[in-house]
Amino acid sequence: MKLRHFLIALLAIGLIWSCKEKETAEAIATNESNSFEYFVDQFADIQILRYQIPSFDELTLDQKKLVYYLTQAGLAGRDIIWDQNYRYNLEIRRALENVYQNYSGDKSTNEWAAFETYLKRVWFSNGIHHHYSNDKLKPAFSPEYLKGLLEETDSNLEGEAFEVIFNEADAKKVNKKKGVDNVAASAVNFYDPSLTDAEVEAFYASAYKGPEERPVETGLNSRLSKINGKITEEVYMSGGLYGEAIDEIIKWLEKAKGVAENEQQANTLGILIEYYKTGSLDTWDEYAISWVNSRDGDIDWINGFIEVYNDPKGYKGSYETIVQLKDFEMSRQMAVLSEKAQWFEDESPLMEAHKKKNVVGVSYKTVNVAGEAGDASPSTPIGVNLPNNNWIRQEHGSKSVSLGNIIEAYSNAGGTGRLKEYAHDEEEIARETKYGKTASKLLTALHEVVGHASGQLNEGVGQPKETLKNYSSTMEEGRADLVGLYYLMDPKLQELGLTDDWKELGMTAFDRYIRNGLVTQLIRIELGDDIEEDHMVNRQWVSAWVFEKGKDDNVIEKVVREGKTYYNINDYSKLRELFGQLLKETQRIKSEGDFKAAQDLVEGYGVKVDQELHAEVLERNKAFKTPPYSGFVNPVLLPETNAAGEITDIKLLQPESFVEQMLSYSGTYSFLN
Q1: How would DSSP label each residue in 344-393?
Q2: Distance of CA 314 to CAs 201, 309, 389, 588, 619, Å?
Q3: What is the predicted pLDDT for the residue at 361?
């Protein structure tokens, strides 16, 4: 699972936890002493940043080759996420890129500027729907203008692929709202446009689910199509759907296997290759077990069809890859949480029947990203916890990582203006300045290491995607948040040497979560819209529930001062108790598969927005130029070779611009027709 969730730059950045979140939070002040240029570009509601790869030059040649081959494997599948996101994305992207590269007319007009901005937004979102809100991007140029550009550059874009840019069709990539046919109302290309929610549920009710007690992730790596009136799975595999790109992925994985750091790592890559060749979900589980037990070596990776956030039914995995290097010092500091995972489980407020008796193999490391692709780029997570299959996590454990250099880049590119605007008082600001960075890192760590590893299903209860359906993702992310929040105000953290003042740390964490959940994340949606993205929804239902339940004791006070709204926490101890109560109930809902309770919680607290407050928050936000979303260009790994064509070194370069990298990627890694 991804944590696109807890740090995200500037009051609001996207986290991808895997639990993957692309989320929001206040950023730490800019590090003035760092001369590295993080900023690349800014357009619409987005800024583009760079990140560094510490210690890359200290790797051996074979380690550098391994990193290079793994990043190439990831990029080879780049077009897959575009097609998964929407059926016309690749056709639209190619036409727009051809226009951009070949148009020789007047580029000083407002319409050309609008065209450039639209193309950048499409690049950033891997398609024509917003990467976070899922709303279709609206161009600020006319259909006639685009037709003229297409004609002048001999670019082909016709019919529905042209019309959908401007009309109201396929308005939502993913629609999980109550009361609609979630499949039919979602434009994401996991299902034939003619399919309905009922048809998908009926198909998967009788689909292969794997061995009893050890179910596979049914439907994870396939598209559900309707061929000659019959519903059919088209599997992502060599020789199958996306086969051309997958063959390229396999080619680079084979090279990576040849320079693996150890036998376990090589065997794991071999199983991943076999999975791509066969499309077998049993092989995917075999790979996941081997991967989670491959813990030696300095280099690791995430590669496959993994997170299901983009599927309104929670079956289909989006293609993503992250290549990572260990950050040894930070990993040593954070390993203590992994070692104490059982203590956290035993001391949690869960019902005894819902506690795990043996929390297995929770591994937590801080890593430095060396390259990302697919759903992890340009908008990236800051933390990841995998594998997602519950029985594998229970029997073999999981890997949790914090993407250290991504978090560092966010921090160094940020500022404190929004914190001062939305915090209730100077005391709150002072705490955030002192403990905010630690609170964010520890919430991420506790969310991933303890939260996602915590709790168990009742015997005979199906997987959450089957029982909680369209609410399963937001319920899981909220549950993991609540585990982190509950323990962030616990003396155990100081005893473990993770903070010098557990009370101040906890108060800081509670302040920033409530501030974000009830106020600041609203800058990320348009006035009048409901909250729909799973992580934003979970932050609001957690915050709104504890606010309401604490009203009689004035635990959290709503303060209006000079026309501005603030939320001030009056009793941090009681707030912790409320987080514990909600955690207990959330785990009960998951353990028992209580769909009605999940629906009531999410719909009652997480979706609807106070429109008066929203308008106020947006007005206050106009004072800040930094956009609410951030993403990254990837460093370029450039092999140097000798006369025989053998790689002698891998050089690390930073791209000059976002445009340069996007056009380079399209020119080099377009393997789908």
Answers
A1: HHHHSSS-GGGS-S----EEEEEEEEEEEEETTSSS--SEEEE---HHHH
A2: 11, 7, 12, 20, 36
A3: 59
H or E, element range at 17: strand 15-18
Average pLDDT over residues 579-608: 97
CB within 8 Å of 152: residues ≥ 6 apart? 103, 104, 105
Query: In the chain, helix, strand, coil percent, each to 5?
Result: 45, 15, 35
DSSP state of 41: E
pLDDT at 6 over 50: no
Q: How far is CA 161 from CA 95, 157, 188, in A?
A: 10, 6, 14
Give the per-residue pLDDT at 333. Answer: 66
Q: What is the 3-state secondary structure (H, E, C) of 225-264?
A: EEECCEEEEEEECCCCECHHHHHHHHHHHHHHHHCCCCHH
Beta bridge partners of 614: none
Q: Helix H segments across 489-571?
A: 491-495, 502-518, 534-549
Q: Which residues sit opposite 366 in a β-bridge?
A: 402
Q: Which two tokens stand for residue 480?
A: 């993991």
Q: Which residue has the tokens 């991967």?
A: 291
pLDDT at 23: 40
φ, ψ for residue 541, nearest 5 deg? -70, -30
> Which of helix, strand or coil describes residue 638?
strand
The DSSP code for 556 is E
Write the pLDDT tens digit of every residue in 626-648.
888 999 999 999 999 999 999 99
pLDDT, residue 414, reads 64
Question: 186, 312 in Cβ contact below 8 A?
Answer: yes
* Ordered alpha helix ranges (H), 78-222: 78-85, 89-102, 110-125, 143-152, 159-163, 197-205
Look at residue 87 and give its three-state secondary structure.
Answer: coil
Sequence-ordered list of residues with C-beta below 8 angstroms from that of 610, at least 6 positions apart, any chain = none
551/537 Cα distance (integer angstroms):
21
The pair of structure tokens assigned to 341 is 């995972």
| pLDDT tens, residue by residue, 43-60 | 999 999 999 999 899 999
For the chain, domain boundaries? 2-55+242-629, 87-128+137-163
Over the stretch 14-45, which tens digit does the pLDDT of each residue have? 333 335 444 433 333 333 345 899 999 999 99
Fold of 2-55+242-629: Fructose-1,6-Bisphosphatase; Chain A, domain 1 (3.30.540)
Rounded to the nearest 5°, which phi and psi values hold at 576? Answer: -60, -40
Q: How many residues does the chain have?
A: 673
**Residues near 139 by Cβ (< 8 Å), separated by ≥ 6?**
114, 115, 118, 146, 165, 166
Using only C-alpha atoms, the chain has a radius of gyration, in whole angstroms, of 24
What whole-number distance in Å separates Cα of residue 293 and Cα of residue 24?
32
CA–CA gap between residue 175 and residue 192 (Å, rounded):
15
pTM for the structure as a whole: 0.80
293 phi, psi to nearest 5 deg? -95, 0
What is the structure's pLDDT at 307? 96
How many angstroms separate the CA atoms of 561 and 573, rounded?
25
C-alpha 649: how far from chain center: 32
Whether residue 445 has pLDDT greater than 90: no
Residue 402 main-chain phi, psi, to 5 deg: -110, 130
